[in-house]
Design goal:
The chain has 680 residues and is of the alpha+beta class. Helix content is 32%, strand content 20%. The protein starts with a strand and ends with a helix.
Length: 680
């Protein structure tokens, strides 16, 4: 049986030699792009096209045609290739856009045999190049995913989005289209319409993230952020995946996201930070069990592959776990998106069939009940099939989560993880920091860690207001404000505990002194650079000191002399916690705060706000850039994080130390002891 895929859905590939059969409504070029574990094209040799139709394990057609058969030998594909994209391009002289011709149809089949997966990318308009399908590795096995990502600016834009520099992308596009241009010059007959019939039924399945990249390697020098850093680029989400953001992206155009009270639409950043690899490639992941031989039974007689912690690409176990967590997140996003798409399709078809039954006079008089029951039965069957696949995928993800969570290092682990009950402060900083957990309504028992890359490139806004959140509305105002500050203290403690002892200096602004109880662990451990600043004078003095630091470091960097900074300048990175904003702030203080949020992260000054958006709105549009530049989190479970890729509203749950536990104090005590031991 052929699985008719919907955009974002995937299907196991249990044959080592497969064919990609393409049928289009006009002559097209069928190319193949090869990407590494980060989802990036490695160079001009990563594209199979008419001028170079054969790459290891891949063979494409040598001229434009309405029908193509691409041959793929997965066993012969180089080990550095982790995904193979099937790219369709409209050649010169033909239709100007895919929206003007019938949707192409692609089928994946065993070599010379039966088809087991198919996809027809619809809803195309101005696109002239298209990533239709993708074969990719996941946990040692191959899968096929329906992508359907189009590019109105053509093949060059597609290649540039895949990581090639613009000059290389333009040159490779010219080379790939040269054969098509010669064919046009010779006079190509007009294309006719395809004769195949496209399937219509869709159902959900799981997905996988291939856009993982490791962050910049971090040294032990506390002034490392003073050196100019090359900007990190982030692929669009499949975005994401990113992600949200993997490079080949998801459905065209962003989907609407739930609006914030001020009308803005915060989004989750799925982008994995880039590592500029300058040494040998990382070790290969551990080998996984072979995939099932029967395409109709993806689990096979021995069940699905056994999950393995750290089963992802990376230079270290921390990086592999980081990439695996984001892969799980993307898996959950795609499988739920495919399920929702299947349910929407089933509902729309039910509505159409019911309308047809009611609009036919003969059927209204006799047999209308039978027609309605048949339509509902067909709808229920489709939904049941989609739910069965979703449940299978969720079970596999749950099993993977149960293996991964116990293996996470402190920076990624929950506060109730045993890793927090021992050990010393590390010699190097981590790749990312856990902020909480993410989930979807279809998977109430599955939570994926929300990891934020380090060093922090944007600040955090922990919202202690009640507007726009049902959970917050049901909570007492004082308890909500205390929970928000407790969350900020937990984030600060985690940041200190997972870095070398001298890496961060922490400053606190608590103008009204209302947060003394929640801030007590930081004060008691002696890890603050100074006592919490109180009153308008304390606010102004703290902001003046940090603003001066940003100005001096920026001037030193522009002059190329970071070693000439004043001796009294603290070389550590700075974290500023602002509580109960805007109490104690005047216009000048707000302007400085915005300056720190915009310019500070580049030179190691980071912002953690605890504030009520409604109260802060008294400053009007002055604060809008600050609000948009920070990542908003909630101290209570809330579905405020929007996903523009697959239209999910993710439920965020904060991760806090268990009630009555001394784990946070223990972590801060280790930091304090390490700082005392490091002093001369």
């Amino acid at each position: 049986m052929t699985a008719e895929l919907v955009r974002g859905q995937n299907h196991p590939v249990s044959h080592s030699r497969v064919e990609i059969r393409v049928s289009a409504g006009t002559a097209v070029l069928a190319l193949a792009s090869l990407a590494d574990e980060r989802g990036r094209l490695t160079g001009p040799g990563a594209l199979a096209h008419p001028g170079a139709p054969g790459l290891p394990g891949v063979r494409v057609s040598e001229e434009p045609a309405e029908r193509h058969t691409l041959a793929v030998d997965l066993d012969a594909v180089e080990t550095g290739v982790h995904s193979i994209g099937v790219v369709l391009v409209l050649p010169p002289g033909g239709p100007l856009r895919f929206g003007a011709v019938p949707a192409p149809h692609l089928a994946v089949a065993e070599q010379g045999g039966a088809e087991f997966a198919a996809f027809a990318p619809t809803d195309l308009d101005a696109e002239t190049a298209l990533i239709a399908l993708e074969l990719y590795r996941r946990q040692g096995a191959w899968k096929v995913r329906a992508v359907g990502q189009g590019y109105a600016d053509g093949l060059a834009a597609l290649l540039a989005d895949g990581g090639l520099p613009a000059p290389q992308a333009a040159a490779l596009t010219e080379e790939a289209l040269r054969t098509a241009r010669r064919t046009d010059d010779a006079g190509r007959p007009p294309a006719s319409l395809p004769s195949h019939a496209q399937g219509s039924d869709g159902q959900g399945s799981d997905g996988q993230g291939s856009g993982a990249q490791g962050p910049h390697a971090q040294g032990s020098d506390p002034t490392r952020h003073l050196a100019p850093q090359p900007p990190a680029t982030a692929p669009a989400p499949p975005d994401p995946i990113p992600v949200s953001a993997v490079p080949h992206a998801g459905p065209p155009g962003p989907a609407p996201a739930p609006a914030e009270p001020d009308g803005s639409r915060p989004t989750i950043d799925y982008a994995h930070p880039r590592r500029r690899r300058t040494t040998a490639e990382p070790p290969e992941p551990a080998p996984r069990p072979a995939p099932a031989a029967d395409p109709a039974d993806p689990a096979g007689p021995e069940g699905p592959p056994v999950p393995v912690a750290g089963d992802a690409a990376g230079w270290s176990m921390d990086e592999r776990l980081y990439n695996q967590v984001w892969g799980m997140f993307e898996d959950l996003a795609r499988t739920v998106a495919a399920y929702r798409s299947a349910v929407d399709f089933a509902d729309s078809r039910l509505d159409r069939e019911l309308d047809e039954a009611l609009s036919d006079p003969s059927r209204r008089l006799a047999g209308s009940d039978d027609a309605r029951e048949t339509a509902r039965a067909r709808r229920d069957e489709l939904v049941a099939r989609a739910r069965a696949v979703l449940d299978r995928d969720l079970a596999q993800l749950t099993a993977e989560s149960e293996v991964v969570e116990p293996a996470l290092p402190a920076a990624y682990a929950r506060w109730d993880h045993p890793v927090w009950h021992g050990g010393d402060t590390p010699a190097e900083g981590p790749l990312a920091l856990r902020l909480g957990n993410l989930g979807l309504p279809e998977s109430p028992g599955l939570r994926i860690p929300l990891l934020m890359r380090l060093p922090l490139e944007r600040g955090l806004w922990i919202d202690n207001g009640r507007t726009g959140s049902e959970a917050a509305m049901a909570m007492d105002t004082d308890r909500l404000r205390r929970a928000a500050l407790d969350m900020a203290v937990a984030h600060a403690a985690r940041l200190l505990a997972v870095h070398p002892a001298d890496r961060f200096s922490v400053h606190v602004i608590d103008a009204a002194g209302a947060g003394s109880a929640a801030l007590a662990p930081l004060v008691r451990a002696g890890v603050l650079a100074a006592p919490p600043a109180a009153g308008a004078a304390g606010v102004a003095e703290t902001l003046e000191r940090l603003t001066r630091r940003v100005d001096l470091v920026q001037m030193a960097l522009r002059a190329g002399a970071p070693e000439d900074l004043p001796p009294d300048l603290d070389p550590a990175e700075q974290l500023l916690i602002v509580h109960d904003f805007p109490h104690g702030f005047d216009d000048r203080a707000v302007t400085r705060l915005r300056y720190l949020a915009d310019e500070g992260p580049v030179v190691g000054v980071h912002l953690l706000m605890v504030a009520d958006r409604d109260e802060a709105s008294a400053y009007g549009p002055l604060l809008d850039p600050l609000w948009r530049s920070l990542m908003r989190l909630s101290p209570v479970p809330d579905h405020h994080l929007a996903d523009p890729w697959v239209q999910h509203a993710w439920t965020f749950e904060p991760d806090l130390p268990p009630q009555g536990s001394g784990v946070l104090d223990q972590a801060l005590d280790r930091v304090a002891r390490a700082r005392r031991g490091a002093r001369p």
